[in-house]
Request: fold
Amino acid sequence: MTERTLVLLKPDAVARGLVGEVVRRYEAKGLDLVAMELRTIDAAMADRHYAEHVEKDFYPPLRAFVTSGPLVAMVLEGDSAVDCVRAVNGATDGRQAAPGSVRGDLSTSNRENLVHGSDSAESAAREIALWFPGLA
Reply:
C-alpha cells in the first residue's frame, strides 16, 4: 500500500552532518522523496507538532531541543511508508535501538535521537498538513 509519511531530521542530525546518510537509508529502502525543507522552528510549531505530548514531563526538554537549531522536514512516499520509516529509524532510545537502524548506528541518547517519523497513517496526514500544507 503506497502511503506518505513525515520525517524530521532533528537538530542533532543536521549539526552532525548526517542528513545525507539518513536520507540515503530511506532511499535505499525504496522510499521516494516528495518534499524536503531545512527549517528552524519556534516553540509554537513544536507544540502543534507534538500536541499529544505538551503536558508530559519529558516534553519541555524535547521542545527546547527541537527548537535549538535547524532541522530537515521531509515527506517520503512508498509501500507501507509509515512502518518502513519506523523500522529504518529504530527504537526511540538510540542506546537500545538495533544495529543497522538510524538510531542504532548513529544516535547516542534517548532525547537527541536524530529523527522523528509519523507513528500511524493518521498522524502522518496530520503532520504533513502541518509541515507541508500544499501537499495535504
